[in-house]
């Protein structure tokens, strides 16, 4: 089967086990956790590229999505102490910021002229800001830019802001939705394995609770994204465990729009001694994620974190979404040492990246409705 669908594979270069997995992928059959681990350990990069491209083609054809967006980061003051974070500051510490509602609404207004369709709103867990503050913030932004969609707050922020207001998650999410929230970003997932989580982000929302918050959002009709922070202290089995938990929740709710692998960047944090992953490992991670997550429609390469060149290359490894124009509005990755120190891209540049890699650019909104296609 696999040798007819993938005629370039032959038994002399690919092991029988990998050929068998290729057959499963070719016929749209789901692969198991053990097979996912084997792909990571033994799958040659060109073989993974062909399989991942097959899956992306089944789901998205030759389309690659992008959007016009900015990030708003209300504060980098945070009560948590994630060891990989280069961004967080204590209240009053040099380099901390906390913008008020009017300032943030003005920032949104100043970017609206460029035709953005999305504001990605995330920050640290500020001890004095509860869900009422953030609902007011969304209302203030929507009053100024009513047509812009708001994708806001990681499950970690939602967890804390609801606790600070003594409110159940379901109630808090409903309040934010009424204020104008349309989607949740995928941050805060890190790595789900509880032993590793205790080492890298001990005081953060736990894995089960992260999944529960996304489940509740999906039940309320709020689609969400998902992420995995990789390249820290995990092994391949931990990554597949993480992907398995996301795949199971997606089977249950269908509420995830996208999966975004986040490569650990090591500048200026407590894990600086850990070498960053190579580009080959990054590409392998995209490909195995695409093959394994057969039920999450979009795989996103977030170029401010990985750089434009690797993001373009990733399109040959199952990626179908490059995120957006950003307009130099996020600091999370520049502070952690990304090569994109002032991340900004025009729609022309994003389209060139996509066309240059042999795909069709499609401008989308936050919910993946098609706005323009060449
Ligand atoms: O949860 C923090 C990660 C995440 C580092 O949903 C780091 O569209 C690598 O989730 N090295 C927040 N990663 C960002 C995020 C995100 C980004 C872009 C798009 C979307 C989306 C979501 O950033 C955190 C954490 O996993 N992170 N520090 C670091 N040093
Ligand atoms: Fe706070 Fe997020 Fe940094 Fe963790 S990653 S310390 S939750 S800002």
Task: Give a short summary of the structure.
This protein has helices at residues 2-5, 16-26, 33-42, 45-60, 101-112, 131-144, 155-164, 169-179, 194-200, 207-219, 236-253, 279-292, 303-306, 308-314, 347-356; strands at 63-72, 118-121, 149-152, 181-183, 224-230, 256-263, 298-299, 321-326, 360-364, 370-373.
List keywords for this structure.
binds iron/sulfur cluster, 7-stranded mixed β-sheet, 3-stranded parallel β-sheet, binds ligand V47
Describe the protein's architecture and organization.
By secondary structure, the chain is α/β, with parallel strands linked by helices. It folds into 2 domains: 2-56, no CATH class; 64-373, TIM Barrel (Alpha-Beta Barrel), CATH 3.20.20. It is built from 15 helices and 10 strands. The strands form 2 sheets. Strands 1, 2, 3, 4, 8, 9 and 10 form a 7-stranded mixed beta sheet that branches. Strands 5-6-7 form a 3-stranded parallel beta sheet. α3 (33-42) runs antiparallel to α12 (279-292), α7 (155-164) crosses α8 (169-179) and α10 packs parallel to α11. It is globular and about 65 Å long. The structure holds ligand V47 and iron/sulfur cluster. Iron/sulfur cluster is lined by residues 78, 80, 82, 85, 87-88, 124-125, 156, 201, 204. Residues 84-86, 154, 185-188, 190, 225, 227, 229, 260, 262, 264-265, 269, 302, 323, 332, 336 line the site of ligand V47.
